[in-house]
Amino acid sequence: MTVRQDPAPLTRHLRVRDDRGRTVLRFHGEIDLAAADEIAPLLDRATARPGARVVLDLSGITFLDASGLRLLTRARNRVLDEGGELHLVCSHPLTLRVLRITGLARLLPPRATLDEVMGGPGPA
């Protein structure tokens, strides 16, 4: 049995991998101003391609402030401006509450799991 592993993190807050034709960005830890500064260039690179298919996976975060919300909004705008698609994975109750209160959940509806976005479990 083969176990799929994420590649080494590009920063302590972000791992990026390709999965079934999509770029999956998995966020980790606290996404605050310092983390956003580390993440922004990598996020910009992943969302710059025309027609990019991107998944922002927040299942590994423990905190998200306004800087993190700006990252999500920036990614959404960049991907949609280039004719791509963007999905958000988030099930943490406090983060979901912040997304709803700010209205971002209407613009970028969160899915509970990565499998829900990807259409089922990936290869073993």
UniProtKB/TrEMBL annotation:
PROSITE patterns named in the record: STAS (PS50801)
Highest taxon of the lineage: Bacteria
Gene3D superfamilies recorded: STAS domain
STAS domain segment(s): 12-121
Pfam families: STAS
Gene Ontology MF annotations: anti-sigma factor antagonist activity
Family in the record: Belongs to the anti-sigma-factor antagonist family.
NCBIfam families the UniProt entry points to: ant_ant_sig
Name of the molecule in the record: Anti-sigma factor antagonist
UniProt source species: Streptomyces griseoviridis
